[in-house]
Structures are given as C-alpha cells and as structure tokens.
Design a protein that fits this description.
Layout (H helix, E strand, L loop, with lengths): L2 H9 L6 E6 L7 H15 L4 E6 L10 E5 L3 E3 L4 H13 L8 E4 L15
Parallel strand pairs: 1-2
Antiparallel strand pairs: 1-3, 3-4, 4-5
Helix pairs in contact: 2-3
This protein binds FE2/S2 (inorganic) cluster.
Length: 120
C-alpha cells in the first residue's frame, strides 16, 4: 500500500459514516474550551466510523465551540463535552439531531440523507 492509500485508510475515509468539523476558537470560544472539547471528541469517536477535523474558523465567531455534522449538515453551538455526549448518542449514533441546540442545517445538496421532518 502506498503512502496516499495508507493516509486515506488512517483517516478512516473508506468506513466513515459521519464527518465532524469543529471550530476550536479563538474568537467563538476560548482556546482552552476548544482544546478540551477536541480532546473529548477524539476520545469518544476513536473506535467509531466517524471522522473529525479541526476547522480554523467558520466565520461565525460567536457561541462556540461550533460543531457541524456531515453528511446531514447539522450545526451546533456552545458544544461542551457534556453536550457532545448527548449529540453523539442521539444524533451521530441515533440519527436524531438534538434540535434544541441546532443553529442551522444545510446538507449541501445531499437531500437524500436529510428527512424533511429533520428540519428545525
Ligand atoms: S473562531 Fe470559531 S467560528 Fe470563527
């Protein structure tokens, strides 16, 4: 296996069911809050078919840490480790977004993966 193929495998692309992007600040939240959340998410999704990527900034710059879950394009604000635990159980594993914390939805044209009843 060449280096590119190994990298693709290591990133989890072939098996991924969800991809999480997380802004860790420094403008939407403190760097410390962001890093605490990042370390928690890394630990919690380690053995799941879930990719996670740090985003430098979503240009929202408030109410962070911010999290977007793809392929459904569900955006969450003020994500703490405790909130992420519920998002993980109910949305990422259970398929039902935690609507009380959802700030936006846009599946970027992948309408087949979003049920009309999922829209807030
Ligand atoms: S710093 Fe997080 S959205 Fe800009």
């Amino acid at each position: 296996m060449d280096k590119l193929a190994k990298g693709i495998q290591k990133a989890g692309i072939p098996d991924a069911k969800k991809h999480l992007f997380i802004c860790l600040g420094p403008d939407c939240c403190s760097k410390k809050e962001g890093e605490v959340l990042w370390e928690f998410i890394k630990k919690r999704v380690k053995d799941l078919p879930v990719m996670r990527t740090k985003a430098a900034c979503f240009r929202i710059c408030r109410d962070g840490p911010l999290l977007v879950v793809y392929p459904d394009g569900t955006w969450y604000s003020k994500v703490t480790p405790a909130r992420f635990e519920r998002i993980l159980k109910e949305h990422i594993l259970g398929g039902q977004p935690v609507n009380e914390w959802v700030i936006a939805k846009n599946a970027l044209g992948c309408s087949a993966v979003v049920k009309p009843t999922d829209n807030p």
